[in-house]
Amino acid sequence: EAKWVHDQEMHFRVIARRDMIMAEWSAGLLKLSPVQTADYVKAIVMAGLTTGEDPVFEKLRNDLSPAIVSEQQIIAKMKEAFETASEKAVPA
């Protein structure tokens, strides 16, 4: 049971890191100021805490017009961000 709790906590942390990476990436695409970026990161992280199939993807898709980035590009970047976040979660 302790291992399951640990695994769940690690997964939650990886997803939270992924969401932060995605928020910073999309804020750059939207050319947000540093203050706006900080607020946007918070909004993305909060979206990640809501229910739904993938609320962060939905928010990003709604915030980023197809002229800026396609759904496929968002999905690819989310996979890359997940891998990056997973690597940082593994102790050296």
Unreliable spans: none
- The total count of helices amounts to 4
The helix content, as a percent range, equals over 70%
Question: What portion of the residues fall into strands of 2 or more residues?
Answer: under 5%
Number of strands: 0
Structural class by helix and strand composition = mainly alpha
Globally, the shape reads: globular
From the structure provided, what is the oligomeric state, counting identical versus distinct chains? Answer: single chain
Average pLDDT, rounded to a whole number, is 91
Cα-atom radius of gyration = 14 Å
Span between termini: 25 Å
Description:
- By secondary structure, the chain is mainly alpha-helical.
- Helices cover 77% and strands 0% of the residues.
- It contains 4 helices and no strands.
- Helix 1 packs across helix 4 and helix 2 runs antiparallel to helix 3.
In short:
The protein is mostly helical and 92 residues long. The chain has helices at 2-29, 34-48, 55-63, 71-89. It is globular.
State the main characteristics.
92 residues, globular
Give the topology.
Layout: H1 2-29, H2 34-48, H3 55-63, H4 71-89
Helix pairs in contact: 1-2, 1-4, 2-3
